[in-house]
Records
---
Amino acid sequence: MLSQKKIIEDGDRVVIYAGKDKMQVVTIDAKSGEYCSKFGNYKHKNLIGKEIGTKIQSDNNNGFVHVLSLTSELWSIALDHRTQILFNLDISTIIFNLELKNGSKVVESGTGSGSLSSSIARTIAPNGHLYTFEFHEERAEAARKDFRDNRIDKHITVTHRDACKQGFRLDHIEGMVGSIDAVFLDLPSPWEAIDHAIAVMHEGAMLCSFSPCIEQVQNTCLKLAASQFQEITTIEVLIRTFDTRLQEFEELNLSNPYTSTTTTTPPTTETNTTTSTSEPKAKKKWNQNKRETFEIGGIQGLKKDSLLSKPISEARGHTGYLTFARWVPEN
Ligand SMILES: C[S@@+](CC[C@H](N)C(=O)[O-])C[C@H]1O[C@@H](n2cnc3c(N)ncnc32)[C@H](O)[C@@H]1O
């Protein structure tokens, strides 16, 4: 996940990309690995030596895929959901507002499916460290395995523990207590973990809590205010994705019949078109030069192709509220 390789090698962890919603994470296995799908069959040994990102024809010549490097962004899309996970929009907001960078020391709970953990690890590597706490034993073990497979395990310590009861102190790790730059909480009762967070943070460190419900946010804010946190801010990050596509429009000539003598002349001014006297441009996929006329009730109009941008109606809505605060105790 941290590698910057250009050429596929045996043992690499890559994403086989057959489309936006058709990605699979695989480890290249020259001996027996094979990827088979409706996009064709690919023996891993035939992928070795190919350039990352290029189009690769299937062995049986009935399709193609692209092979991409595994990034934390693609991992958040392709991973196995063992829990609800954080997605890239919330993740980027968290990483920026927690002021994370190479060298940061971070505490997180719960680990869940490791979606956020992977992005944190990528941001703080190679000199930082993530201490992540998960009270569900199998989830903690599955996360450890994913981090090992994705080769980010040396930047992450997974601890199986109830963070609200046992806190975040790892006394066997020298210098951990009092050195944490940022704490991230994705817990049902985050306010129960705030005293434990303070026990490992240094002064001026940041905390972020993610909660789906506003009542959780209210309790968390009250606890933060009572615990000498400053800059307490809650935000909700909503995405509004736009779809841009070719659309045919019908434009009627609705000029006022009482003031005009040319009531039946179709409109002639069009953006994005060449004038009739100029050389026709090379044909595009869509017909920007279309000039078909039509008539409704004696009024003439012009059909034309145009680009339309509109928000996608099924865009993802509320995920949760992010509450940020800085610990600046006065005494
Ligand atoms: C929604 S998931 C976290 C998802 C994670 N942020 C991600 O992006 O993949 C919440 C996790 O917190 C764990 N959890 C809940 N209460 C906990 C506690 N008191 N201590 C540690 N982990 C806890 C749950 O087992 C669950 O795996």
---
Amino acid sequence: MTAEVRPVLIVGRSGQVATALLRAAWPAGLRPEARGRMELDLTDPAAVQAAVAERPWAAVVNAAAYTAVDQAESEAEAAYALNRDGPAALARACRAAGLPLIHISTDYVFDGQKDGAWQEDDPINPQSVYGASKAAGEVEVRATLPQHVILRTAWVFSDSGHNFVKTMLRVGAERDELRIVDDQRGSPTAADDIAAATVTILERLLSGRGAYGTFHFANSGTTSWYGFAQAIFEEVAARGQNVPRLTPIPTRDYPTPAARPMNSVLDCRRIAQTYGITPRPWAAALSDTLDSLLPEPAAAQSPAIQTTKGAR
Ligand SMILES: NC(=O)c1ccc[n+]([C@@H]2O[C@H](COP(=O)([O-])OP(=O)(O)OC[C@H]3O[C@@H](n4cnc5c(N)ncnc54)[C@H](OP(=O)(O)O)[C@@H]3O)[C@@H](O)[C@H]2O)c1
């Protein structure tokens, strides 16, 4: 007789975190099953209810969101539909089915004005429509479903989906110089590491050894977008490819529709104390992601000549 394997509903399929959840190492008794927007539209409460009731899920993970931060400024209705009303419907359905929900949230619920790292109970004060819609989603989940974990993370990157690493690789191959913001600080975080933390949380919750509530998870160490870009292109150069010249600039020289927190650094002590999850350094996680994005270094090339396309 084989042991029972219980499915876990992953809301989202092709997103960074959803993809990472699907390829994460799951314990023998749990198996992820994803529903992308074509199969489960999070903005349709009846579809949410039906999906949660459809199977004897062990738990639900919400990895879906409206994540186009600048576009959200002009599409507030769509952002709130997905980031507030979707999680609210999901939390109601989970409550009815007696299921725990892990809901992924963001550093953008904070205003970025604190000197130190943000703790879970610090007051939120989002500065963008995206941040406000995600904050509203948190409020709904907390009010509706006691069996929730809200996992806030930051600066997510992966070898799939849209993210800063992939953007740098693309524009770095096209241009001789990149001007990158150097006065916003945060912790770049691998989607694979968020997925591994989520699996650990679920395993503990489902065996009665977990705790509900809000937790921060980000890879360790902090940098700026400029520092992040430097690390990316150091790895690119080490793999024998040309890299652009990088110029640090202040946020005011790179205006965007949505305001970003100047300090996005998350204090991750609570998840370490409660779940024993200690994030690895962001640079190590970056190196793994670049290994899957970039070809092996060409042995014949010398790093000494791998600078810019003639600009340096
Ligand atoms: N990206 C970041 O830097 C960052 C930073 C902090 C926190 N977060 C949070 O981390 C979580 C995951 O972000 P991500 O970067 O993995 O997102 P992403 O790559 O932009 O993917 C978005 C996901 O949302 C799903 N989705 C979009 N519209 C939907 C709808 N109407 N119904 C159901 N699903 C829908 C997509 O479904 P399909 O699979 O069908 O495309 C996709 O799986 C989000 O909660 C986000 O707020 C992200």
---
Amino acid sequence: MKLFTTALLFAAAPMALGSAVPQLERKMTYDGYKVFRISTHHNPAAIKSKIAKFAAIPFNLDNNEHLDVAIPPEEVAAFEKLGLETSVMHQDLGKDVAEEGNFATYESTVGTQAVPSLTWFNSYHAYADHRTFFNDLQASFPSNSEIFEIGNSFQGRPIFGIHIWGSGGKGSKPAIYFHGTVHAREWISAKVVEYITYQLLTQYSTDTAIKAIRDKYDFYILPFVNPDGFVYTQTNERLWRKNRQTRSGASCVGTDINRNWPYKWEVTGGASTSPCSETYKGQAAGDTPENKALVAFTQKLKASKGIKLYIDWHSYGQYILLPYGYNCAARASNHATQSSLASGLATRIRQSYGTSFTTGPSCSTLYQTTGSAPDYLTDVGGATFAWTIELRPAGSSGGGFVLPPAQILPSGIEQWEGMKYLLANV
Ligand SMILES: [Zn+2]
């Protein structure tokens, strides 16, 4: 399936509330957009003021070392004349998006009694195929797994997951809890979560180490906690990040679900109060439908057998991020253990392809975030470990959110190797 060929440009629908007429949807192709990583020399504000006149699309947020931006074709020459220290992440973003959007078709295996093929990981796929893939995978292991739904997104899509258990029976052990694709454009996160799910299910009967892990924990894996945003990246705007929530009086669409969790939401500096910002926190703590559903489900896991490990899978940058996001001096009570496990995880990941991951508390390692999932999971959800993993690429010359399909499988393999270490040691 080709992206961006069939989507319609919807006219802005009139809103009954407020005078602003929001631009609800637009269609972007990114043809000729060139993506640069700009060295900031620890002064991002200076760079931001130099490039303020350009219609640049920001790829990263408040990074002290470098700013990654997509520059429209008509502005590339003027941008290059600035003489900033840059490297090129995408020569032509539109070309790379088109290549990435060349989805393979997926044939459901239901009725064939076969496990879906690993060729699933050779390309990206349409949202509907992802749901079918999960249904097929579950159907191959009906006595040890089930598909569940925790509620609906703003546009009414069910937020689904797969629950996997071992010999103790359904719901008998502490939770390993994964979220994918909270940021819509981070496509590789769903694929990696799918690869881990696939291995957990298919290796149980043949690998004693996997059997031991499966028998010790219940797994709750939600590959798309922001389905509206993900679908929108496939139909209209590949670089969309937030959910698709409209709000009265606001001229922009979308709230950042990972700035909306009801914990340290009110702290300033780690999110935006502007509805047009990529990190818009919402009008009140936990006021997105997606977050309400996630909070309720998290509380359910806490009240049941508790949460051992939570991972929010993102891209990009190759980081393993520990609590906390809201305060750069705060540390989890078991921080020393967390650090040691994160280092071990990075070492194990590196053994597959030499891919290097940076580890550390998220605020001091990357940037401040408020109302983020790992902080909530740690202090409210009672998770022993609650991390963010930022997947491939590292960034400089390897692209950004648009990761070539050939890197899907290696990304999955190295993370699965890492999880085998982590799950045996938490
Ligand atoms: Zn993200």
---
Amino acid sequence: MPITQQSEMEVYESFLKEQLVPVACLVDEEGFYPESIMRGLGKLGAFQFSKLNEKEALLKRLKLIEMSAKYCVSTSFLIWCHTTSISFIINSNNSYLKEKLLPLMENGQLLGGTGLSNAMKYYAGMEDIRLNAKKVEGGYSINGVAPFVSNLGPGHWFGVIAQVNKEQRIFAMINCDLPEIKMKEHKDFTGMNGTRSYTCRFNDVFIPNEYIISDSADQFIPKIRQSFVLSQAGMGLGLVQACIDNMLKVVDKQNKTNQFIGISPSEILEQLYALQQKAYLLSENFTKNNFISSVQVRLEAAELALKTAEIAFLYQGAAGYYRKSDCMRRLREALFIAIVTPAIKHLKRILMENNVTSC
Ligand SMILES: Cc1cc2nc3c(=O)[nH]c(=O)nc-3n(C[C@H](O)[C@H](O)[C@H](O)COP(=O)(O)OP(=O)(O)OC[C@H]3O[C@@H](n4cnc5c(N)ncnc54)[C@H](O)[C@@H]3O)c2cc1C
């Protein structure tokens, strides 16, 4: 009997409760990479998207990212990285990658990431492209740097955009094992340390035609950018729910003094439900023309996450001021959601330039 999406999510959630909850602090602070959890989710079918239609795939991805963020935003971000790299292949016309790579990525045997933050900023008019590509026999040669790419390691893959000339940029999948790529891990973040985030330096890296997602990244980007942005909102939604749960634990503390902070868990819960409905509706009614609405939801999720993490901290008081407290981790995670590409400043720029006022 086919399992419904609801029961499918329940299976993933009980797996995460058992496997992820005990190690969430280690992931955030100590740099523990939750590899077995990522591979385990793959085995359970969490990354199977190619048999779903676009709307079903986006909704499943959003809910998976949201649900995991309740326990650990680092792992939720890793799931976003991996599922985003899967979306690159699914949306391409590359039959080689679809046959050879996609099934292994969908079952978690191979893991992937996305090195697109510089390109996303390029398309928003914020900076120049930092990877350059030269057409050579059988493919392209790439030089330059991708300063932050997460969910990498031996055997992993990630997507990048490199500039051939002013008119042409290519989109390629890159294998981390290529010897010409020099990878240096970032180990001293304030949180999110188990995300296996690297600076990747490309020195004449040959990329065969088989690994090219598109010879025109400019035309390909509109196919993936909306789900790229909307699925990230899941990190904010899950984090807000976790912060509300923390507030509820101490709501009556000190003769109900927390009510004088001026906002109750139920008020935030209302805002969360409203935003959740917007995000789900956008996924269910997915069209590639809904980019601006997705940018708004992503921005609202980042702002609600920042606000709620701070309020949950105020509710907790000094107990939350310990470095290892859950409230402190949630603050670090909320700050990450606010600055990861597209960051709040980037999202606001897009909205302003499209004459949309942000919330
Ligand atoms: C924990 C963590 C994980 C991340 N994972 C990813 C990921 O998987 N994929 C991804 O694409 N981005 C990732 N990023 C990067 C993130 O999305 C932002 O792009 C990054 O935080 C910088 O954004 P900013 O706007 O603050 O730019 P700024 O920090 O102000 O930097 C401006 C630009 O300078 C360049 N730059 C900065 N540092 C370097 C450097 N060391 N070498 C060369 N150029 C540099 C970059 O192009 C950057 O966009 C991650 C960041 C963090 C903190």
